[in-house]
Amino acid sequence: MKIAEGIGAWHNQYNTRPLAECAGRAQRAQLDFVIVKYGLRAAEQAYAKAGVPWATERYVYINQPEREADMLAAAVDNGAVFAVINAEEGRGGWGPAEEGAQAIETIATAFSNRHPAVALYACLDTRGDRLNHPYQQAALHWCDGIMPMIYPGAFRPGQPLAYIVRAFDDALKGKDFGDQRVYPVLQSYGWDDPPGRARTMGAYGIRMQAGWASPHPGCSFYTLHHATDAEWDAVCALKPKPKPEPLPAELLLREMQIRSECVGLANSGWLGVLHDKLHAIEAESE
């Protein structure tokens, strides 16, 4: 089962960047997954072609749970590695009403009947007392993990830097997620945009969020394409780059010979000593 661990990003219908550029961003950041808005088939194919695992996400409606499950399951049929219920309160009908719990249960069970080995997550706004709403309690029970929305700039606009910490507190502090895994969804955009802020704000904001999210098994950035180049550079810097493979002894020797020739040291006696030492190291490693 592919799960949402590691670092991921979201791709929604408001993208204006070429898909090849988006796929390149995902590769450069070494993303573990990209969550693609349901129905954006060209985007799904672009990430698949680039070798980036993609998942599906829908803003689900409370009055059509069976249809929502069918659409999420159909995306898995097309290659999605997991699915996300986006149940942000608003036009979808989600709120404190009791019927929300039944709708979540119906979506989750119908999806699981189609794809029992595929993870299903719920992306929720857990600020305030929302986690106590019936639909969020149902998500805790029926889904494989919770993705709390943590958007410091959007939810706490114009506040000082401490608002990043407060935004995490708003969504997570004192909340009882039970045994569920929590995968925070973080804001990747807007850090460099407000007038008067230095461009380093993007890197700082993203690093701060990632640091606060680090106790959890994974996180994702909303969105891959809205981030400026500077902001996306900060996302790319989060993952340590693999160290290059060491050169074989003979290639290392040849490289040093070439360098020495460039400075007129081709006949230096130390090359012979180095040659013997490198062969001794190789023999010990065999």
Word description of this protein:
- By secondary structure, this protein is α/β, with parallel strands linked by helices.
- It folds into 2 domains: 6-236, Glycosidases (TIM Barrel), CATH 3.20.20.80; 249-285.
- 43% of the residues lie in helices and 14% in strands.
- It contains 11 helices and 8 strands.
- The chain has an 8-stranded parallel β-barrel, surrounded by 6 helices.
- Strand 1, helix 1 (19-28) and strand 2 (33-37) form a beta-alpha-beta unit.
- The longest helix has 16 residues, at 99-114.
- The model has no long low-confidence stretch (mean pLDDT 85).
Describe, in short, the structure shown.
It contains eleven helices and eight strands. β1, α1 and β2 form a beta-alpha-beta unit.
- Low-confidence spans: none
Which structural class do the helices and strands define? alpha/beta
Major β-sheet profile: 8 strands, parallel, barrel
Strand content: 5-15%
Mean pLDDT: 85
| Count of individual beta strands | 8
